[in-house]
Amino acid sequence: MQLHVLSLNRINELITKKEISAEELTKAYLEQISRVEDDIKAYVTVNEEEASVRAGIPVAVQDNICTKGVKTTCASNMLANFISPYDAVVVENLRKAGASLIGKCNMDEFAMGNTTEYSAFFRTKNPYLAEAMPGGCGCAAAVAAGEAAFALGSDASGGIRQAAAFCGVFGLKPTYGLVSQYGLITYAPSLDQIGPLTRDMTDLALVLNIICGRDSVDSGKGDADLPDYKKHLVNDVKGLKIGVPIEYLNTVKAPRVAAKIQEAIRKLEELGAVCEEVTMPHAEFALPAHCIISSAEASSNLARYDGVRYGSRVESPDVLNMFKKTRSQGFGEEVKRRIMFGTQVLSTGCYEQYYTKAMKVRTLVKNDFDLAFEKYDCLLTPTVPATAYKTGEKALAMYQSDFCTIPVNMAGLPAMSLPFGMAENLPVGLQLIAGHFNEGMLLRVGYTLEQNTDQTRLRPDISGL
Amino acid sequence: MKIIRQDLERLIKACLIDLSEEEKGVYLEQLNDMLGYVDSLNKLDTDSVEPLVHVLPQHNVFREDKLQPSLDRGLVLANAPEEHEGTFVVPRIV
What we know:
The complex is a heterodimer.
Chain A: H1 8-16, H2 22-40, E1 43-46, H3 48-53, E2 57-62, H4 89-96, E3 99-105, H5 139-144, E4 150-155, H6 159-167, E5 170-173, E6 193-198, H7 201-211, E7 241-245, H8 246-249, H9 255-270, E8 274-278, H10 283-301, H11 319-330, H12 333-346, H13 351-375, E9 378-382, H14 394-399, H15 406-411, E10 415-423, E11 426-433, H16 439-452
Parallel strand pairs in A: 2-3, 2-4, 7-8, 7-9
Antiparallel strand pairs in A: 1-3, 4-6, 5-6, 5-10, 9-11, 10-11
Helix pairs in contact in A: 7-16, 10-12, 10-13
Chain B: H1 5-15, H2 21-38, H3 73-78, E1 83-84, E2 87-88
Antiparallel strand pairs in B: 1-2
């Protein structure tokens, strides 16, 4: 039996029946890592030691989520040697539930990007095609390549969902405030959420149950009652009303991707759902507004990196020069660009014109969704207008890649990406969006699709799988 | 809007970031591109729209005012670029 391809649900079953041990499981994963990691490069740190000593279900965690005793680098030279003195609340919850941290995933520096090309260390490869992008973190690549049973990532502009779409796994960005942000090194706290990446729908529900446990330290935590998400794994969409925003559909230029989205819509209709086109007139303005808000927040958040209490320092006899040298050499190009841009839009004379304007646009983007959810149970869009971008394809195409994911962050909504077949040998991602704290609806619709097609079961053709 | 060299100098001073002359040229162009891009928001009339500060109605979460263990001093200081007898060391300030 290949242990490193099993779902969490199946692993739990086998462990409960004592048919496999956590040690065997860990060993299988470490073996798969040694087989494929040189090619995939999903991890900044493989935590072989802890995984072996404290065997459990192997979880990969994006390297901007604090883990006590294991480096948390944010893929930045600034934090290359940073070891957090505490665990993020989500990590604490996972450890309590019997997971063991098998590694920390690569990412764009401080999560600013969607390719890992801005990692200060290296680029992660897509398990389906080496020259294709894995999304903005190595989490989905690790799960797809059998290097982790599941992963936790962060999503401020689509990080979890895009990586999941590009690598053919399931990824869920919870409602803003459902999951604790404590211990997440976020660049844009009003937009960011931690969420799971898994191999199937049931696993999403299982991990969500574990990570959304309450805590007493997180200022951004909502008060919604916490349901048992497994109850929402219902194979039935009869009578559900699903909106399909035309602005999102129109972004898709690749005919095979468009065909897959239409196929998913037809499937849901066949299963009894009512799908209708809906218009979201402010969708196109979400991107520039997000660019302003996220950069503004980044410029303020990253002010803490001054070479004094933690992080790298470039020595200088004069303290101001020490700050400057430390920040100039510790931050990469993209991070500096966003800090400067954020500082500009917050500066006197610009604040109203840019920052306040963006916050007003945020209201309009949210209103579009509020209106849609008066009529629809959930919305269906492509996760990304295309399949994974390839090296050198950057610029224009990639800039559009956030079009379908960013409005969700602007409105703080829950959304997930599930695989839906392939186009040109790369996975296609389908995005479902629901109202605040309605993760249950995402699980229900996703689960129904999963149970009634074979499109959601994808596996890359790599060694050991 | 467009920014000029002087604005960039002011910016990098505020951000505590040093740039070479060559970098300044590159960033100035890129920042102007970004500003040009976000200027597309001006197409929208937002005069009667309230800015969105929080996506959800939230209130502060208070904990009980009880003494709790704080972070381990040794672990915290282990991350410091330089420390001395339990304190962070910085270059001379005054």
